[in-house]
Amino acid sequence: MAFFEWVRTNSEHYLMEASQQEMARKYMGTEPPLVGATVKDIFFRRLFVPIYRLLPYRLTKLVMMAMPGSHHKDWGSTKKS
Predict the structure, then answer these.
(1) By CB neighbour count within 10 A (0-12 exposed, 13-18 middle, 19+ buried), where does 56 fall?
(2) What residue spans of 1-81 are helical by DSSP H?
(3) Tell me: the pLDDT tens digits for 26-62?
(4) What are phi and psi of 73, to 5 degrees?
(5) Residue 30: its pLDDT value, please?
(6) Which residues contact 42 (CB under 8 A, 6 or more apart)?
(7) Of 12, 48, 57, 71, whose CB is crowded by the most CB atoms within 10 A?
């Protein structure tokens, strides 16, 4: 697995996990237990997710476009001939 693919896969996973935790806390009043306490888990949960959420959208989009991958598709600019 290439480095950028690893970053993208893990960031998607931990951002989704954080969102699910928030939804469970808000609507169920409790959070599901977190599984795993490796260095990777701690890094993404304690550093990456909070920092990512503080960054403005323009900056995160700029970083995503700088990384290689399938997210370069521009779905919004379809022109009809």
Answers:
(1) exposed
(2) 3-27, 39-43, 49-54, 57-66
(3) 998 887 888 888 999 999 999 999 999 999 999 988 8
(4) -65, 135
(5) 85
(6) none
(7) 48
